[in-house]
Amino acid sequence: GSLKARQLVVKRAAEYLDKLAQASTGETDLQRELAGANERLGEILGGGGVSNLGDLRGADARYGTALAMREALASNSQATPADVEALAQLHVSLSRFKALAGDLPRAEAHASRAVDLLESPLARQSTDPHRLGYLARAQHQRGYVRARRGNNETAVASHREATQNARRQVELLPDDDQEQARLARIEVDYAETLRYTGDDAQALAMIADARQRAERLLKADPHNQRLRMTLFQAFYNEGEVYEDQEHWSACLEAFRRAVALADELRTAQPDDVSSQLTAIHAYYALGMGFIHSGAIVRGIAVLDEAVAGAQHLLRTMPNNAYVLSQLSGIEVERGEALLGIHRTADGCRDIRSGMEVWARLDRTGSMPGDSARNRQHYAELLTRCPQS
């Protein structure tokens, strides 16, 4: 199948790169090219935020090779601003990768290192017209990880800086679709952190601007997966804001549109880990929207789809902390809903299963901040359950 073919191509590319690396000593230009090739291979194998094969171990090895090369190039006495920018961009990729693997402390460390590099004296000498966009990307990633860790105030500050720099970049390059797409994605995540702090009005304004940008860009490039992912996230975040406001018709409509986009993404790339995760998030959101609006039985049926998607993904990456955290979160919420319709045995089973996974994640420092905050609530619900 297509997955095996892609895996074979990647294996041969890795072998070729390893042979070239042995002959690259002292050849700076070749080392730059090899670093970039190893980074791209890491993204294909298991990079965060992009289509990938789900091979986290292989990705970690390739990213490690690229990092060693980039650090040597950037610390050289003849290093250029471009070398520092390339190292910073790699740290952003590593942050995304570590976040996908559930290692949030290291994800934040990589993102912060990227910001520091791009604000260094040598990087400030860069003549690259996209310099502000690179900085916005690093600040955006740091804000994303901080939000995942439950540090909402610092996340808002990082996203505010990222949005400001991305807008300045768009002002300098107004016809650059890449920078327009970057700004749309940053606005979507900024809106999510604003929602966490209760600023719904500004969150909806951010979402509206991001949607307009993404929809305009998609007219010219309708099959662009990154843009479709940004639009998905806009609908998802919009649904969450309306859910907070108990505006159920608008909430469910936004979540339905998110599910439709997620299904399209998964159908287009059925072997892609990011597309499968997107579908899990979408069905979870729609299911919880139904439950919170009072349609509990219908919501549980939709949550079943989210659970099935997570379980399918775990068959190929069984120890992935991020997927485990998603599945456990869905299980405890489905369990609470089942208790609400007096399906006690099923509800207790779900809550107990989710809490057991949370305990495992907590021991490795991989437990998301929102799960940590909710843990006591579900522990109290378990006291209603018969001893197993």
List keywords for this structure.
388 residues, mainly alpha, 17 helices
Q: pLDDT under 50 segments (min length 5)?
A: none
Provide mean pLDDT, rounded. 89
Distinct helical segment count: 17
- Please compute the radius of gyration using only Cα atoms: 22 Å
- The helicity comes to over 70%
* Terminal CA distance: 44 Å
Strand fraction equals under 5%
SSE ordering:
HHHHHHHHHHHHHHHHH
Class of secondary structure makeup: mainly alpha
* Number of strand segments: 0
The profile of the biggest β sheet is: none
> Based on CA inertia axes, which overall geometry fits?
globular
Which helices and strands occur, and which strands form pairs?
Blueprint: H1 2-22, H2 28-46, H3 56-75, H4 81-100, H5 104-118, H6 121-124, H7 131-148, H8 152-172, H9 177-196, H10 200-220, H11 225-244, H12 248-268, H13 273-292, H14 296-314, H15 321-340, H16 344-363, H17 369-382
Helix pairs in contact: 1-2, 2-3, 2-4, 3-4, 4-5, 4-7, 5-7, 7-8, 7-9, 8-9, 9-10, 9-11, 10-11, 11-12, 11-13, 12-13, 13-14, 13-15, 14-15, 15-16, 16-17
